[in-house]
């Protein structure tokens, strides 16, 4: 039986009539998304929707993975930033290192301490080249942080260059500068479809290859994504169905009513990276100076992340007593560890009643339910998503649901979800300061 995901929005503060009205504005666009999801030629801006059914990418990922199959891999280093890194890291943190799988290390920003820790781990764990794989991900092929980290890592490891070339996989646009150089150096290569932007690329080779190499169930990830496509793109215009469609309509109306902060409130520390992935998706896609009509609008929603129960004791007072500017999505999943740690029936301190004999999981669930109840009493709008099992299928569903949501939401806002002129601006200025080509 397929695992289930609960999506509930009765406490979102809007009526079905309000949601239906917003969705009525985007029915033709949803039909466009449905057709785009079937087009594996990747011709439209929304082309990432076709990735779960793209047999070419899946076959190529498996082919390159198989070349390392007999190697006793101990460490995989993923070098990337933003969309080249966040999705993979989110799955790894949420599900943990797979049984007998290699350890995954991430280099994502220009930090000497982070580089030192990665190099130290490699020196401790890796004794032969075939125990290491380096994955360099840059869609453009010239991302300053990623290329600099790769060069610095090689310099620090001080290994034979030809051996490290053979242990490196470059994931980039076909025809990019990195694609060409990687081919000349004898590195393995995987391409990202040109129309698939970085923040929408987790279900491309960007996410699938490192996760497959580390032993994760990538078919489960894609199966969850296909489920999300079916739920959200198959319903007719009169149907108030599909979490992504409803989330887009809710956020659109709340933004128009002044609630321009979205809080991903995760009740599991391991899910924090999922919130980071969603933060980039929402911020880069919606934060636009001009709309589709070239009118200056400074549109956007500010995404934040909270972790329960920790942040109830840091920002909880603001949520309950502060400005009513936030729409919250609660995300809950059961612990992945089978062992259930418990408070003993007879406690040593005897300071808190009601916890005796209960597992930490029982207490976490009670807190989660209590927070939602308190939100209801305070009239704070929220939706909640609950996984009955935290696995690859659930995460694939989550990724795809939110990518569809953001596409529909941007369409409602009449902005381009797929460009990022502000980010390009900082990249240009950085290259100028470094004396490089802009």
According to CATH, the fold-level topology of the largest domain is Rossmann fold
Major β-sheet, in short? 5 strands, mixed
What is the total number of structural domains? 2
Oligomer: single chain
Low-confidence stretches: none
Tell me the number of strands.
Answer: 12
Query: Can you tell me the CATH architecture of the largest domain?
Result: 3-Layer(aba) Sandwich
Structural class: alpha/beta
What's the SSE pattern?
Answer: EHHHEHEHEHHEHEHHHEHEEEHEHEHH
Q: How far apart are the termini?
A: 53 Å
What's the CATH class label of the largest domain? Answer: Alpha Beta
Mean of residue pLDDT?
94
CATH superfamily of the largest domain: Glucose-6-phosphate isomerase like protein, domain 1
Strand proportion, as a percent range, falls in 5-15%
- Shape, per Cα inertia axes: globular
How many helical elements?
Answer: 16
Strand order of the largest sheet: 1-12-11-7-10
Q: What is the percent of helical residues?
A: 40-55%
CA-atom Rg in angstroms: 23 Å
What does this structure look like?
- It is built from 16 helices and 12 strands.
- It is of the alpha/beta class and 438 residues long.
- It is globular.
- It has helices spanning 16-24, 27-36, 55-66, 86-95, 112-125, 144-157, 161-166, 177-184, 205-213, 218-233, 243-256, 272-286, 316-321, 360-378, 392-413, 421-433, and strands at residues 5-8, 75-79, 103-107, 132-137, 168-173, 188-192, 261-267, 288-290, 296-299, 302-307, 326-332, 382-387.
- The protein has 2 domains: 5-27 and 221-422, Rossmann fold; 40-216, Rossmann fold (3-Layer(aba) Sandwich).
